[in-house]
């Protein structure tokens, strides 16, 4: 089972990086929930996930490089590097556009009935803001 769940997560990131919403729809449950360490409001449901992913891809042109992936039971843990170039102003700061960034991310997935049901993301958003000059004095 762990080989299949790890492959499911790899496909998720391939589809995300390719902006392949149709494939993402096949990989997650209709009641998918995504939690991000910096956001108190989880993304709930397939439509909300598609909207959230679309806005992320439109503003950041990022890619994921998996460094480690572990699976046990219904959980998959991924440690990766996410990097990209800012495509739209961060924090309404136009000088951030075109700036490269590279950060560490750790994500836990819960798999249910062969699909991704939940995703917990711990991402270094402050590092991205600092690298792109989005914060005053950074």
Characterise this structure.
The chain is α+β, with helices and mostly antiparallel strands. The protein has a single domain (2-132), classed as Nuclear Transport Factor 2, Chain: A. Helices cover 33% and strands 43% of the residues. It is built from 4 helices and 6 strands, in the order H-H-E-E-H-E-E-E-E-H. A 6-stranded mixed sheet has the order 2-1-6-5-4-3. Strand 5 and strand 6 (115-123) form a beta hairpin. Helix 1 packs antiparallel against helix 2 (21-27). The chain is globular, with a radius of gyration of 15 Å. The model has no long low-confidence stretch (mean pLDDT 85).
Short description:
The chain is α+β, with helices and mostly antiparallel strands and 138 residues long. The protein has a single domain (2-132), classed as Nuclear Transport Factor 2, Chain: A (Roll), CATH 3.10.450.50.
Spell out the blueprint of helices and strands.
Layout: H1 2-17, H2 21-27, E1 28-36, E2 39-44, H3 46-60, E3 62-72, E4 75-85, E5 100-112, E6 115-123, H4 125-132
Parallel strand pairs: 1-6
Antiparallel strand pairs: 1-2, 3-4, 4-5, 5-6
| Strand order, sheet with most strands | 2-1-6-5-4-3
Sheet with the most strands, sense and barrel status: 6 strands, mixed
Number of individual domains = 1
Identify the overall geometry. Answer: globular
What Rg is obtained from the alpha carbons, in whole angstroms? 15 Å
Contiguous low-pLDDT stretches (5 residues minimum) are none
- Portion of residues in helices? 25-40%
The span between the termini is 45 Å
- Would you tell me which CATH topology applies? Nuclear Transport Factor 2, Chain: A
Beta-strand fraction estimate: 35-45%
| Shape-level CATH architecture | Roll
Please give the CATH class.
Alpha Beta
Question: Care to count the β-strands?
Answer: 6
């Amino acid at each position: 089972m762990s080989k299949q769940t790890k492959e499911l997560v790899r496909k998720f990131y391939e589809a995300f990086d390719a902006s392949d919403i149709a494939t993402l729809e096949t990989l997650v449950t209709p009641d998918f929930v995504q939690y991000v360490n910096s956001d108190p409001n989880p993304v709930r449901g397939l439509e909300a996930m598609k909207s959230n992913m679309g806005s992320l891809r439109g503003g950041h042109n990022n890619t994921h490089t998996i460094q480690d992936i572990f699976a046990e039971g219904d959980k998959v843990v991924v440690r990766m590097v996410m990097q990209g170039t800012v495509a739209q102003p961060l924090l309404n700061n136009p000088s951030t556009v075109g700036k490269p960034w590279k950060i560490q991310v750790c994500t836990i997935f819960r798999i249910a009935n062969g699909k991704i049901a939940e995703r917990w993301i711990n991402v270094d958003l402050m590092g991205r803001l600092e690298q792109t000059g989005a914060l005053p004095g950074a």
